Amino acid sequence: MHKILAFSLVSLGLSACDHPTDDSSSKIINMESNHKQYTPSNPYIFEYNDIVSSLKAGRPPDTSHIKFKNLLKKIPSNDNNLDILKTKRKVLIHLGCLKEAYIVTEKILNKTDSSQLQEMQCIFLRKMQKDAHEIKACYEKTANSYLNEINLIPKAALRYQYALWGHYAAMFHAGHIEYKDKLQEIIDYHNIEDHKKTYQQMYENVMNSSIFQTRLDAIPYTSDCH
Hints:
Blueprint: H1 2-5, H2 9-12, H3 24-30, H4 45-56, H5 61-74, H6 82-95, H7 98-111, H8 115-127, H9 132-150, H10 158-173, H11 179-189, H12 193-207, H13 209-217
Helix pairs in contact: 3-6, 4-5, 5-6, 6-7, 7-8, 8-9, 9-10, 10-11, 11-12
């Protein structure tokens, strides 16, 4: 239950329940599925995984930063292969190049639907302190993405409640405060204690702006990625 619900970036800010002590760039990336990363057309994933493994093993961040920059230089700027775009996006996030990561994510979203990636776009916009109207539109787009997902999930499936939460939370972040009550309704719906506690924590993370801001502040960001 915890692993399924942890995927909601809107509801959990930037926290990944599986890796609560990871650096923020790793938290973001851990939200995404690691399955099927390798394809013969993506020769960069091995080097990326090696850098990440070394970073987790205690390699100095400055050394890893240099290696990520060198890897980024190897990835063709005009390559639209989906797997390569996903790897490039992860490298950019580690480097704090959120403007560039946003652009790459848009390319990915043009090729495949993902409520989680669409949701992350809004996080990027907030970190980059973009216009409030742009952020609002992003969250409404995220809500619609979750709604499309909901329509494809059987109501009895556990994932249905997660997607419904993502939809409601995105609408709340877009300024539709009436969705606060709808989030509470999801909490009340669950009678299994473990599930209820998970949603209660998610609710706190949505409603408590200081929790979200703390996590937002921890995301690496630089406007100089040349």
